[in-house]
């Protein structure tokens, strides 16, 4: 009977593998999963070979990415020579190499539950003598087809909010991206959360009263909320590539080790990440770990990974290398992709835990490590609050101006100057929001400075009052021209200042509660 299992797979199927490993461990199987089993400071090839040799059964997740991976090829060629039991887990339909056609297989392209039950049944039985080659052709779980159908409706409905630009930009291609498994979960979630705001603006600004067109928009709103729940479902989390998976966060604990064995350490970082490096260094020294001047002399190396640094000179097979993800980076070196990381993107947490568990890298990674997925977009609460506030103000500003500019009241000769000013105001607001979001998220450029961000938010206030003044002048001229007060579309401008104040208060509250994260996020100046 199978007891020890070795997982061979591509990182592109990490959501599926993570869930499957959890299910197998719940059935009391010992599963060797590379990023959880590889301990830095010991040769990888020795660790991998030990995992293969001790395994009763090898589970090979069959996908296009897996069969094109040199690492996966080395693994399955190794267990071919060792003549171990191999079960193919068909995640995608691909042409199998001749050497793999002889092995047992379980089809996971359709029902995950049926595939799991079949796998558990095979693990409890002897090897089957005949193994027909699995049939080809695209198959997917039923939830994927539902997600594609719902996202198609949402994509069409998002076209009504064309004036927001980013909502249709993200949601229109979403059905195809779900099919290809490569959508960005964080970006899609942002667009789906912004859709209700844009929909309500479209309803109340366009006519000021409920109409059939508004019913269509509300139907789109319901589908958008439904889609968000579908994308967060376990089945879709197994289906998507790493960037389509909800980020997982660690919860550091206090192991209560006051005097750990001293370990010579080195913090490898770009100057822009100096604030984090200084706090990490101070904590390690507090627990008695000596800092060395040269990276080659260190027994433990902490490599801070961001847009400013994507590799390190440390050797993970000889040194205890702990990559610390400060910021999303899609250009990491291959050696950093084989071991767990410590994730500081949601905020710098667990410094004391790192220092206390440093002599025991296995325990440290179990407590603080995360699966090596660098393509996800993750920010700290303070940065997230600023990010959403900027987007909210941009949507409200543009939404409350666009109806005047696209469809001005039919009164010849009135407020031509005001409409021009309104267009300039909207362009300034949109441009400012774009560059603020770009600088905030990339940590580069003019708006990678917290004081400049605060200045930008103050400019939002000035542009908001300018917009309100313009709306007031337009309202007055229409009223003087004989329009009844109830026939004048005031739009949302009368409320935009309250949206600004409320958003500023919430953002300020989160900002003050997370001042340390702001210090760590914005890059240090040279």
Gist?
With 526 residues, this protein is α/β, with parallel strands linked by helices.
What does this structure look like?
α10 runs antiparallel to α11 (212-231), α16 (381-406) packs parallel to α18 and α17 packs antiparallel against α18. The strands form two sheets. This protein has a five-stranded parallel β-sheet, with helices on both faces. It contains 20 helices and ten strands. The chain starts with a strand and ends in a 5-residue tail after the last helix. It is flat, with a radius of gyration of 28 Å. With 526 residues, the chain is α/β, with parallel strands linked by helices. The chain has four domains: 4-123, Toll/interleukin-1 receptor homology (TIR) domain (Rossmann fold), CATH 3.40.50.10140; 142-244, no CATH class; 265-370, Rossmann fold (3-Layer(aba) Sandwich), CATH 3.40.50; 381-521.
Provide tags for this entry.
526 residues, alpha/beta, Rossmann fold, 5-stranded mixed β-sheet, 20 helices, 9% strand
The parts where pLDDT drops under 50 for at least 5 residues are 485-492
Gross morphology is flat
Strand content: 5-15%
- Oligomeric organization of the protein chains: single chain
Please give the count of helices. 20
From the alpha carbons, calculate the radius of gyration and give it in angstroms: 28 Å
Helices and strands, with pairings:
Blueprint: E1 4-8, H1 14-26, E2 30-32, H2 34-37, H3 44-54, E3 57-62, H4 64-67, H5 70-82, E4 85-90, E5 104-107, H6 112-123, H7 142-158, H8 166-171, H9 174-180, H10 185-206, H11 212-231, H12 234-239, E6 265-268, H13 274-286, E7 300-305, E8 320-325, E9 341-343, H14 351-357, H15 361-368, E10 369-370, H16 381-406, H17 416-442, H18 450-480, H19 493-513, H20 515-521
Parallel strand pairs: 1-2, 1-3, 3-4, 4-5, 6-7, 7-8, 8-9
Antiparallel strand pairs: 9-10
Helix pairs in contact: 7-9, 7-11, 10-11, 10-16, 13-14, 16-17, 16-18, 16-19, 17-18, 18-19
């Amino acid at each position: 009977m199978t007891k020890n299992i070795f997982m061979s797979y591509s990182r592109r199927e990490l959501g599926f593998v993570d869930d499957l490993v959890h299910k197998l461990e719940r059935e009391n199987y010992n599963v060797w999963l590379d990023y959880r089993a590889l301990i830095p400071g010991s040769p990888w090839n020795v660790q991998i070979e030990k995992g293969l040799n001790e395994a009763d059964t090898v589970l090979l997740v069959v996908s296009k990415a897996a069969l094109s991976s040199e690492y996966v090829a080395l693994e399955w060629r190794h267990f071919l020579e060792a003549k171990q039991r191999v079960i193919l887990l068909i995640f995608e339909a691909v042409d199998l190499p001749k050497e793999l056609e002889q092995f047992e297989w379980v089809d996971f392209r359709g029902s995950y539950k049926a595939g799991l039950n079949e796998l558990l049944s095979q693990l409890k039985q002897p090897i089957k003598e005949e193994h027909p080659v699995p049939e080809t052709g695209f198959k997917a779980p039923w939830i994927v087809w539902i997600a594609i159908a719902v996202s198609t409706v949402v994509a069409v409905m998002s076209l009504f909010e064309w004036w927001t630009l980013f909502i249709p930009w993200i949601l229109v291609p979403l059905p195809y991206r779900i099919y290809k498994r490569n959508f960005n979960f964080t970006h899609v979630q942002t667009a789906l959360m912004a859709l209700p705001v844009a929909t309500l603006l479209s309803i109340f600004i366009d006519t000021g009263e409920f109409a059939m067109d508004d019913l269509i928009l509300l139907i789109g709103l319901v589908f958008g909320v439904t889609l968000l729940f579908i994308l967060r479902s376990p089945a879709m989390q197994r289906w998507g590539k790493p960037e389509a998976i909800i980020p997982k966060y660690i919860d550091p604990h206090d192991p209560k080790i006051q005097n750990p064995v001293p370990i010579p350490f080195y913090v490898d970082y770009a100057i822009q990440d100096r604030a984090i490096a200084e706090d990490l260094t101070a904590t390690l020294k507090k627990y008695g770990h000596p800092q060395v001047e040269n990276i080659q002399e260190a027994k433990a190396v902490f490599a801070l990974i961001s847009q400013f640094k994507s590799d390190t000179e440390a050797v993970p097979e000889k040194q205890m290398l702990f990559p610390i993800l400060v910021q999303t980076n899609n250009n990491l070196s291959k050696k950093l992709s084989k071991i767990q990381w410590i994730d500081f993107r949601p905020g710098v947490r667990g410094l004391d835990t790192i220092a206390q568990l440093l002599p025991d890298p296995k325990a440290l990674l179990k407590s603080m490590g995360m699966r090596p997925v660098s393509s996800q977009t993750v920010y700290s609460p303070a940065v997230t609050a600023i990010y959403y506030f900027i987007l909210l103000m941009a949507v409200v500003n543009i939404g409350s101006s666009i109806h005047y500019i696209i469809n001005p009241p039919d009164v010849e000769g009135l407020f031509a100057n005001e409409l021009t000013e309104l267009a300039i105001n909207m362009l300034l607001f949109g441009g400012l929001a774009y560059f603020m979001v770009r600088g905030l998220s990339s940590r580069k450029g003019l708006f990678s400075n917290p004081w400049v961000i605060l200045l930008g938010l103050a400019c939002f206030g000035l542009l908001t009052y300018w917009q309100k003044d313009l709306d007031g002048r337009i309202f007055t001229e229409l009223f003087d021209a004989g329009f009844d007060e109830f026939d004048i579309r005031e739009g949302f401008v009368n409320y935009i200042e309250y949206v600004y104040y409320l958003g500023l208060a919430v953002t300020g509250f989160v900002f003050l509660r997370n001042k340390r994260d702001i210090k760590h996020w914005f890059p240090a100046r040279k």
